[in-house]
Amino acid sequence: MTEQTPAIFALFGNPVGHSLSPPMHNAAYKKMGINASYESYCVEDLQDAITRIRGRPLEGVSVTIPFKTAVIPYLDEIEDDARAIGAVNTILHHDKGRLRGYNTDWMGVVRGLEEYLEIPGKTFAILGAGGAARAAVFGILQKGGIPLILNRTAARGEELARAFGCPSYPLSEIGAIRADCLINTTPVGMAPEQETSPIAKKALVNFRWVMDCIYNPLKTQLLQDAAGAGCTPINGVGMFVHQGAEQIKIWTGKEPPREFMRQVVLEKLGAQDGD
Ligand code: NAP
Predict the structure, then answer these.
(1) Which of 82, 152, 154, 160 lies in the 20 to 30 Å Cα band around 250?
(2) pTM (predicted TM-score)
(3) Long-range contacts of residues 266-269, Cβ cutoff 8 Å, at least 24 apart
(4) Residue 263 above 60 pLDDT?
(5) Alpha helices in 148-188 (DSSP H)
(6) Catalytic positions
(7) How far is the CA of 100 from the centre of ligand 1 (A)?
(8) Above 70 in pLDDT, residue 35?
(9) What span, in angstroms and rounded, lies between the C-alpha atoms of 72 and 100?
């Protein structure tokens, strides 16, 4: 990319209106002195949207719900981590005109956790078995942690557990599970249904740290209950900032200003002191 020609990046998802990726990315490029713009697109036809990248000067695309798995067949190359996870959240349109898929969600989970704890040897109870859960299991195993899966649909949890060689239980058995850290990867508690929590308060006494992948609201019901039960709450902002920062590194080869990006996100979320 040259300073004369702005680099163009995009977010593909549906819906995308709520996403904080555009303000976070655009603020980061400005701070880094990179002439670039990042826009969101609400995609109806994924195949058509991917075909259009090839004819345009789009250098990178973030992929979000519901396309992280569906996008894989349309790409030319898939990086090993993304293949193992079975989901792509980042596309690089590289020099040779080819589209390469990456997954940075697992790095987001790992770096978000590492702000609070050391992963090796610790046990992690993961609620959910979708894309975020797959990224969490992969990342925790990469760093020497011990994951177990709890999912509402037991068969889906078992499928994920088989893929990564770890145990799984129906979510209804949460009361009998003890681990160092609980990670919520379900959407339960997300705005506008922020009064809901994926598990009962009393189950939280079995964990020291509780991470929620949700970042809006910042203090989910689960994290409020966790603080009340004496656990250390970890919101989803760290994961969000680090997965985005890793995308910027893939696209520009430069280290982005992660703390600055976090402040931009917190400001958008209307964080109060102490959040
Ligand atoms: P997904 O693939 O749709 O998976 C959702 C999982 O949640 C499934 O296992 C589903 O269980 C479970 N679930 C859904 N509703 C539930 C309910 N009412 N009770 C119990 N379990 C329920 O979604 P995803 O892509 O993994 O995303 C999940 C969450 O992570 C979203 O809130 C997303 O915003 C968040 N996320 C955050 C970041 C970040 O950067 N902070 C990044 C990625 C994702 P079944 O199998 O039984 O349907």
Answers:
(1) 160
(2) 0.95
(3) 266/218, 266/237, 268/20, 268/23, 268/24, 269/20, 269/215, 269/216, 269/217, 269/218, 269/237
(4) yes
(5) 154-164
(6) 68
(7) 25
(8) yes
(9) 10
